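Troubleshooting: if your tokenizer reports a length mismatch, compare your output against this known-good record of 526 residues.
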Amino acid sequence: MVGYALAAFDNTVLKVEHHQMRRKKIFISSVQKEFAEERQMLYAYINNDPLLGIYFEPFLFENLPAFDQQTNIAYIGEVAKSDIYLGLFGIEYGYEDEMGVSPTEREFDEATKKNKVRLIYVKTDAKSKCKPKMNNLIKKASLETVRKRFNSSSELLPNVYASLVNYLKENEFIRSVPFDTATVNAKIKDLDEIKIADFVELARAKRNFPLPLKSKPEMVLTHLNLLADGKLTNASILLFGKLPQRFFISSEIKCAHFHGIEIVKPIPSYQVYKGDVFQLVNQAVDFVLSKVNVTVGTRAISNQVPIKYEIPREAVAEAIVNAIAHRDYTSHGSVQVMLFKDRLEIWNPGHLPLSLSPAKLRQPHSSIPANPLLAEPMYLAGYIERMGTGTGDIIRLCKEAGLKEPEFKQEEDFKVVIWRTNKKLTEQVTEQVTEQVTEQVTEQVTEAINRIVLVLEGNMKRLELQEALGLKHRESFRDLYLNPAIKLKYIERMYPDNPNHPRQEYKLSSKGVNLKKQLKKSVKKK
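Known-good structure output:
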């Protein structure tokens, strides 16, 4: 489970990602008598700090319960179980065993042997000189790790805090940069080269992308700033990953369709989509379009059958794209798309920037992407604009379609509400495809089958049918429209024995022709 907190450090606000996991154990090592006060202070400080307490568990040997085990074996075992060795070195060398070595040096040697993170703080005292053996230990430590000096407790605490925050940053538990720019523990093989090649082709067509076709993946990633010191960024996985949800489980999108105006279970239609951000957009948009009302015209004006959705496709796509591009990916929540009888709601786990408000979204405003490395490729692929016009376009498109103005709400999540066509407007639509087919049709025919039957004229390719319906995601089109129509024998393949024939086309069967006549007759009666 993932969440976040905010911490102020060095005048910078850091976003802190935390997981329900074992806290990192810090073994505090020093001559106990000399640093008794500092040890207890550090122990309390780390435990009680609102940031450090989330991630770290300090350990003091004197707090270990008594048990039958030799002391030297016990403390060496605790060092081995720790993640971080924190050493306080000063004047005294401390008790020496039969080999003339102190527990402090034994602990340091064990931490070195086990490759533990070592943080060494040396107390300076102008009045006293450190013992020879302690001086040698300090020199040995300085050869293997970075040491920091302090004069008093007031200096020690900030130094320890800074070191531990740097540890969290280096291990990417906290970030002072956008989520999408942080690196991820993944390799090039976790990316899909075909997706990258398809992106280059699309970006060249949409935005004159400068890289040539068949550019190497590393070149494309470098150009898009998706590599940081040779490591893949989070954005690269979300854009081109083979299995993005393996790295970011909440990056999925949930779509639901309710027949009424409230969330009521059982949900009539519910889908959880996975994939890269482009696939998520296409799948979610196609889900909505398969459920809303639609008008289908004739070829009187053009060769392509005109089709008009109750909610403009561009408005649906813009709202969903914005939710995916601007969401908070550190949240364990997902983007939710919910279609009701009277409205469409898109919930985005995230918050508006402090400089924006729902009211300001209705006015011209600057674009402040929450995930800039994610937004740039989506712009290049033609999915979004970079001028802050998204919400304005949604408002304009809805008005042009005769719909109420959409609403923007900032609650626990950011929400966009797009209102559907009201009853009066629906009755005015000519050639409306109804959700219920005529009584003569005895089989369960989905709305999607009605639509593909209505737009199919003569012989058409799969891509032509998909474009006629305004659908982008090939798998959704096949699953919701094409395959059901073929299975119920309303549509036939030109090459039935070879479904993947390169010149495959589709036509209406005699059964499909009859359904089309019935649908058109039903529309005329209305």
